[in-house]
Every structure is written in structure tokens, then in C-alpha cells.
């Protein structure tokens, strides 16, 4: 897993902002039922590109026809088809369906290659949910959710509460016909460093239609607010699996063990605690002048050091220590109006913890 700098995490916040009510789920049981229904209604087939035949549907849409029941292309699978055909999807959408079909059919007929199609039986019609290369390695959303359920059920892990958004109180568990996302935290056994009590959390996401990788992000955190922004995340580690031919093998051999270790707290907790303890003991100065002198050799401006010192002191942090100054700097970063400046300062502050001798 790749380790990233200390920062605030917005992954779950973005999901909280954009997901409509019908993509929000109350618990893992309902999320599992939804994703399992999609899997049960799905079928993978490999087709030669010259054998793909397109027709206009009754609603001026585009369907794939041939020797079997017609299947309607979704907006997403149409984009994928255009990519496979080497055609500009955005431009083709401005043309009449008949012209689009003629262009795509001409391109497909010239390509001696195959594609893997994901068919789904919907309400009253059949759709193509994904149109990918033949070596696409599908990890089913239902399998990811089932693994999450097996791992966290009966433990102290939970979805953090959130404010109502989009007409629904449900937040943290999301899924659609394209992807899924889950957010869990556990603050029952926090890692204590001075006055700080760091909980543990993780994000897990996947797409069985090729819209994103499989991913797992684990982290320690200070707190989670009502719109699911994770503040002061430490020890952020991320694992991504691209959907290639052996993706399911990597999911089983890499992702599941990593998740189990983290959930069961068999991660390197001692190393984490030792590093944070070291930062809490490392004195950088008993007053502002001495702290500023210490930070002259670090990648911070004088005004940033002063602002971090004052912010940390106002929030009750021991700014005579490296840990207190990192807390102060990240708290000050949250006040910056521009995202780029905020993230840049957060990363530089987090780097101080990684570089403790």
C-alpha cells in the first residue's frame, strides 16, 4: 500500500455531496442486496468488434443488435464503445443516431479485436452496462460488499453519522449501476498521543463497469464532521487495483488481507504510536521566537510558522512540540480560502512527521 502525507480527506465528502437518494443505503444489508441483484441480472460476453451491429431504438437511442435480443447502450457504455472504436464520444452525441451508427460501424468493422460486454436485464429491457477490452478483470461490487460485511460485522466499526443531504439521512454507503463506495470508522480504541485521540477509518470503492479502479484507503484521524470531511488524517495508506486480467486475484491476495489487518488492529500500531509519541516529545521551542528559529530550516515561511503557532495555541495544542505545531499548521491550513494553498500547507506539515530522525 502506498503511504501519503498527513492531510484532510475529502473522498467521503464528495460522495456525500453528489449521491442522489436512490444511491444511498442505510446499512450493509441493503447495500449488499442491491449490488447482488445487479450481479444476478448480469452476464459477461466477449464479442469480436466486426460482429457488433448497432441499431436505432424507438427513443432515438442506440442499441446493439445481432443474433440475440437487442441491448440498449447506456451513456457510460456508449462512451466506452466510442473509446474502443477510436471515435470522439462528445462530438458523436451532436449527430443524428443514424449518422453515429454509420461512423461507429465503419470503425468497428476495420478493427480485428474483441471486446468484453456486460449485459444486464433491466425492467422491461436489456442494457449494455459496460463495453471494455477483452482482458478487463471484473471485480463485482457485490463481492466487495460481501467481504466488507464479513470483515466489519460484529466489530466496533460503523458508518459515521452525517447531516441530511439530498433528501436522505443515509450517508457513507453508496452504490449505483456503475460503482460503490463505503466509509467506516472505529473510535472505540483510539491511539492516544498527549491530548489527541486518533480514531481509525477506511474508504473502500469499486466499479464493475470500468468507471474507476478498486481502491482501499486506511487512515488515522482526528475527527469526522457532519458532511464527512475527515480532519487531520495521519498514516494515510492507499491500495489501488486496476481492472486487468488478474484483478480478482489481487483483490483476494492483497486487498482483503490488508483490510482484515487494519480492521482487526493487527497493523503496525506500535510504529504509529512511536512516531507520533516522538513528535509529541520533540521540543521545537518554548516561545514563538525559538519556534520560528527552528522552522527557518524547514519549508515554511515566517508568516506560516507564526500563524500555525498562534492557531495551535488558540486550539489548546502544545506548540512547543513538533506534534503541536503540526496540529497548529493543519488547523491554520483549514482556514485558507484556496484549496491548492490549503493542500500544499497540509502536505508540508505532514512531511514533518515523516522526517523525524
What does the model show?
The chain has 357 residues and is α+β, with helices and mostly antiparallel strands. The chain has 3 domains: 2-35 and 139-267, no CATH class; 42-121, no CATH class; 274-354, no CATH class. Helices cover 39% and strands 25% of the residues. The chain is built from 12 helices and 14 strands. The longest helix has 17 residues, at 247-263. It starts with a strand and ends with a helix.
**What kind of sheet is the major sheet?**
8 strands, antiparallel
Rounded to the nearest angstrom, the distance between the terminal CA atoms is: 23 Å
Low-confidence stretches: none
Q: Return the domain count.
A: 3
Shape call: elongated
Question: What is the helical fraction, as a range of percent?
Answer: 25-40%
Radius of gyration: 25 Å
Number of helices: 12
Strand elements, count: 14
Estimated share of beta-strand residues: 15-25%
Mean pLDDT reading: 87
Secondary structure layout plus pairing:
Layout: E1 2-4, E2 7-9, H1 11-18, H2 28-40, E3 42-48, E4 53-56, E5 62-65, E6 71-73, H3 75-85, H4 89-92, H5 97-109, E7 114-121, E8 126-132, H6 141-152, E9 173-175, E10 180-193, E11 196-206, E12 214-221, E13 223-224, E14 230-241, H7 247-263, H8 269-281, H9 288-295, H10 302-314, H11 322-333, H12 339-354
Parallel strand pairs: 6-8
Antiparallel strand pairs: 1-14, 2-14, 3-7, 4-5, 5-6, 7-8, 9-10, 10-11, 11-12, 12-14, 13-14
Helix pairs in contact: 2-6, 9-10, 10-11, 11-12
Amino acid at each position: 500500500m502506498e503511504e501519503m502525507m498527513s492531510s484532510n480527506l475529502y473522498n467521503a465528502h464528495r460522495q456525500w455531496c453528489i449521491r442522489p437518494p436512490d444511491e444511498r443505503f442505510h446499512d450493509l444489508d441493503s447495500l449488499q442486496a442491491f449490488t447482488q441483484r445487479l450481479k444476478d441480472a448480469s452476464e459477461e460476453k466477449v464479442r469480436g468488434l466486426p460482429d457488433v451491429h448497432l441499431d436505432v431504438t424507438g427513443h432515438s437511442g442506440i442499441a446493439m443488435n445481432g443474433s440475440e435480443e437487442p441491448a440498449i447502450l447506456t451513456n457510460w457504455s456508449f462512451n466506452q464503445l466510442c473509446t474502443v472504436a477510436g471515435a470522439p464520444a462528445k462530438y458523436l452525441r451532436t449527430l443524428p443516431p443514424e449518422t453515429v451508427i454509420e461512423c461507429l460501424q465503419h470503425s468497428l468493422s476495420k478493427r480485428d479485436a474483441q471486446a468484453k460486454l456486460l449485459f444486464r436485464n433491466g425492467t422491461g429491457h436489456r442494457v449494455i452496462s459496460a463495453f471494455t477490452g477483452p482482458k478487463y478483470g471484473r471485480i463485482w461490487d457485490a463481492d466487495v460488499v460481501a467481504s466488507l460485511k464479513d470483515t466489519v460485522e460484529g466489530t466496533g466499526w460503523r458508518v459515521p453519522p452525517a447531516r441530511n443531504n439530498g433528501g436522505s439521512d443515509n450517508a457513507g454507503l453508496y452504490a449505483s449501476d456503475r460503482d460503490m463506495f463505503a466509509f467506516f470508522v472505529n473510535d472505540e480504541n483510539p491511539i492516544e498521543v498527549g491530548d489527541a485521540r486518533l480514531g481509525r477509518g477506511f474508504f473502500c470503492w469499486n466499479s464493475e463497469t470500468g468507471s474507476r479502479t478498486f481502491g482501499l484507503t486506511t487512515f488515522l484521524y482526528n475527527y469526522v464532521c457532519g458532511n464527512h470531511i475527515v480532519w487531520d488524517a495521519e498514516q494515510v495508506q492507499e491500495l489501488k487495483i486496476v481492472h486487468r486480467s488478474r484483478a480478482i486475484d489481487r483483490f483476494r491476495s492483497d486487498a482483503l488481507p490488508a483490510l482484515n489487518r487494519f480492521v482487526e488492529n493487527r497493523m503496525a500500531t506500535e510504529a504509529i504510536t512511536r512516531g507520533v509519541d516522538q513528535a509529541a516529545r520533540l521540543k521545537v521551542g518554548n516561545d514563538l521566537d525559538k519556534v520560528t528559529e527552528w522552522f527557518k530550516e524547514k519549508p515554511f515561511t515566517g508568516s506560516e510558522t507564526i500563524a500555525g503557532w498562534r492557531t495551535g495555541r488558540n486550539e489548546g495544542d502544545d506548540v512547543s512540540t513538533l506534534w503541536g505545531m503540526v496540529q497548529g499548521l493543519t488547523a491554520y491550513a483549514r482556514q485558507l480560502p484556496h484549496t491548492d494553498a490549503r493542500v500544499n500547507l497540509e502536505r508540508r506539515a505532514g512531511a514533518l512527521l515523516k522526517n523525524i530522525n
